[in-house]
């Protein structure tokens, strides 16, 4: 098989079945690795979950460990342009040939044991990372936490980002059920860092805590915070044991309060695990952007993968308070399993930002379906138009003060249209 065929073969494995005993999922990949002669816990893990921001947390940890010259791998999802994005170490993404070789070797095993797509990717990542002799691996949860295939690991540290309503069909229809699922990554004796949470979520976490649980404002303080249109400046203080690590005069080249919180939470976690973290490593990481998370392009055009009410609130606050844009043209689409009313309520609250809201659907990979039309139907009495299924053959151009928001899976379309707009 060539690379395209190999990638398609893995994606054809399908998705998990939520109608079976979910407790099997955290065991299956680990047991299969052991059967193939691999120790699934040979690495020092950082285990990361959350409703929004877990990808940013994971990448920031990866960047910090890389800056500290540790050999580290990053397993994250979803991928945007290539399945190779799910398998990354200090030297970059897995090569096409290495991916082909792994798929050729293990695809019959995946079919024999009926692994689904995410399990197969996790298996391949850990086998690949083993061949690279890595010390640390950052594991981003797929969905939830308690029954996720990544939850076999005994990490050095677990991190939980902000929790909000999501994936009701998988995780439950209340914030308490969702929090309970996320709390499943907390392990006995293991340190867990959490973003500050609502009272309901915090209580669940405290009830489920089996190790040492530290919330954001118990670990981190910021002083001299100043917003700019390219990022922000601040002094960061991290409480680590009996000491306070100081990181003065940081320039974080990332927009939004959420990016600030995620960056600081990642710094706190790595500082605790390593015992010390250099100012130089923090500064180097702070000026590295995270693609399509509140990313500014020439125009100016802003792209962000907001996909729930909380992340759209963060986006709107950034446009309003940080960038101070007016008369924004918003292109927006999300997947069909999102909280449409929550998103619509936020867009309505910030209706003063928009000159027009252009809602669209788009071709999606595999079995996934975009939900633009459902979102459009919730945008009553707003300057919204529905564009139908959007593609780059249409005469769409991104003019100054355009914001593109929504699903990761719409980003290839955004890039295609952005290139045509230059």
Automatic annotation (TrEMBL):
InterPro entries assigned to the protein according to its UniProt record, in alphabetical order: Folylpolyglutamate_synth (IPR001645), Mur-like_cat_sf (IPR036565), Mur_ligase_C_dom_sf (IPR036615), Mur_ligase_cen (IPR013221)
Keyword DNA repair: no
Mur ligase central domain sequence ranges: 48-270
Keyword annotations: ATP-binding, Ligase, Magnesium, Metal-binding, Nucleotide-binding
Gene3D superfamilies: Mur ligase, C-terminal domain, Mur-like, catalytic domain
Classification of source organism: Bacteria, Pseudomonadati, Spirochaetota, Spirochaetia, Brevinematales
Record's protein name: Dihydrofolate synthase / folylpolyglutamate synthase
Transmembrane segments: none
Pfam families per the UniProt record, alphabetical: Mur_ligase_M (PF08245)
Protein family: Belongs to the folylpolyglutamate synthase family.
Single GO term (MF): metal ion binding
Source species of the chain: Brevinema andersonii
GO CC terms, sorted: cytoplasm
PANTHER family the record matches: DIHYDROFOLATE SYNTHETASE-RELATED (PTHR11136:SF0), FOLYLPOLYGLUTAMATE SYNTHASE-RELATED (PTHR11136)
């Amino acid at each position: 098989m060539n690379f395209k065929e190999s990638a398609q073969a893995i994606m054809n494995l399908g998705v998990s079945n939520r109608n079976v005993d979910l407790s099997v999922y955290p065991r299956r990949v680990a047991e299969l690795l052991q059967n193939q002669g691999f120790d699934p816990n040979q690495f020092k893990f950082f285990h990361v979950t959350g409703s929004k921001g877990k990808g940013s947390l994971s990448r920031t940890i990866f960047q910090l460990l890389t800056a500290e010259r540790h050999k580290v791998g990053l397993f994250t999802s979803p991928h945007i342009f290539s399945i190779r994005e799910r398998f990354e170490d200090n030297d970059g993404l897995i090569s096409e040939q290495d991916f082909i070789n792994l798929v050729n070797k293990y695809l019959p095993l995946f079919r024999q044991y009926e692994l689904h797509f995410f399990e197969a990717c996790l298996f391949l990542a850990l086998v690949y990372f083993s061949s690279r002799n890595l010390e640390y691996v950052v594991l981003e949860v797929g969905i939830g936490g308690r029954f996720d295939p990544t939850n076999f690991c005994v990490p050095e540290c677990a991190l939980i980002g902000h929790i909000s309503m999501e994936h009701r069909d998988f995780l439950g229809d209340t914030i308490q059920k969702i929090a309970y699922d996320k709390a499943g990554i907390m392990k006995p004796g293991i340190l867990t860092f959490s973003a500050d949470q609502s009272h309901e979520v915090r209580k669940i976490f405290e009830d489920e805590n089996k190790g040492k649980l530290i919330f954001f404002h118990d670990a981190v303080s910021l002083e001299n915070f100043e917003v700019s249109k390219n990022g922000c400046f601040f002094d960061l203080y991290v409480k680590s044991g009996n000491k306070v690590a100081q990181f003065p005069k940081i320039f974080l080249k990332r927009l939004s309060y959420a990016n600030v919180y995620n960056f600081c939470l990642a710094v706190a976690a790595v500082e605790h695990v390593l015992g010390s973290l250099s100012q130089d490593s923090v500064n180097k990481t702070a000026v590295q952007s995270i693609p399509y998370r509140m990313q500014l392009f020439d125009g100016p055009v802003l792209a962000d993968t907001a996909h729930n009410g909380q992340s759209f609130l963060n986006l709107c606050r950034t446009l309003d308070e940080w960038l101070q844009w007016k008369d924004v043209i918003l292109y927006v689409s999300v997947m069909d399993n999102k909280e449409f009313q929550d998103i619509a309520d936020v867009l309505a609250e910030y209706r003063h930002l928009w000159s027009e809201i252009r809602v669209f659907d788009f071709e999606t990979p595999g079995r996934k379906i975009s939900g633009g039309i459902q979102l459009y139907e919730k945008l009553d009495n707003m300057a919204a138009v529905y564009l139908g299924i959007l593609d780059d053959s249409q005469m769409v151009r991104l003019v100054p003060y355009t914001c593109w928001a929504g699903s990761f899976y719409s980003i290839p379309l955004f890039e295609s249209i952005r290139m045509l707009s230059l």
